[in-house]
Fold this protein.
Amino acid sequence: MSTLIIRGGRVLDPAGGFDAVADVWIENGRIAAVGENLEREGAAVLDATGKIVAPGFIDLRARLREPGLEHAETIESGSRAAAAGGFTTICCLPNTTPYNDSATVTSFIVDRAVNRAAVRVLPIGGLTKDGAGEQLAEIGAMKEAGVAAVSDGDSSVMDAALMKRALRYAASFDLTVLEHCEDANLGGGDIHDGSKSMLLGLTGDPVSAETVILARCDPLPRGLRADSLRASVERRRCRSGAASEGRRRRRYG
C-alpha cells in the first residue's frame, strides 16, 4: 500500500468550491481525505507550505511534433514538460508530419503515448484531409483509433457548407469539433485592427475575423458540438447573439 500526505499547501478545488490551506491524504493513488492536521501511520509526508495543490491542468491545444518533427519535440519530451508545469492531460493538435488525418497516424500517437508519455495524451484528429479545408478526413476510423476530438488546428474551415457536414458527421461519432475562430480572409494581421495599426502602417486583425466564424455556428442544427480553440474577443456579441469570452466552451444544442 502507498500512502502520502501533502502537508500544508493551499488546496484549490474549483469543482467543489474549496480554497483553503489544508492537508491532502492520498491512498494508493487516490485522494482519501482533505482536511487539517491529517495523520496516517507510516505515510510519507510532502511539505507543500507556500505552494498550491490543485487538480491536474488540461491543455486542449498542445503541439507535439511527433511524428515528423522529432528534432523539435517528441511525445515523451513534450509530456515531460507538461508534467513539470502541472498538466496531467494534454490534447495534441493534428499538425504533425504526416498530418493526423488517418487511423494510421492516430494509432501511432496513441501507442507512443502509452509507452513513453509522462502524462495522459489525447490525440485530436484532423477535421479535413491535410487540414486543407476541402475534404473531410477519415473521422470514423480515427475515432476507432482513439481521437478525443477533431479539428484543423491552426486553420479555420472556410467552407461553411463543409463545416456543417463536418459537424453533423462528427456528431454521429459523438465527437466535438474544435474550431480555430479566425476567418482567413479577414484575419492574419500583425496587430489588433484599429487606429494604432493604421498609424504604424501594419495590417490589422479585426474583431470580425473571430466573430464571423463564431456567428455562423449559431443557426446550425441542435445537438451538434463545437468548441472554440481561439477566441480572444471578450464581452462582445455577434449580431446573432453568439457570445465569446476568452476560450469559452461553446456547445450548440
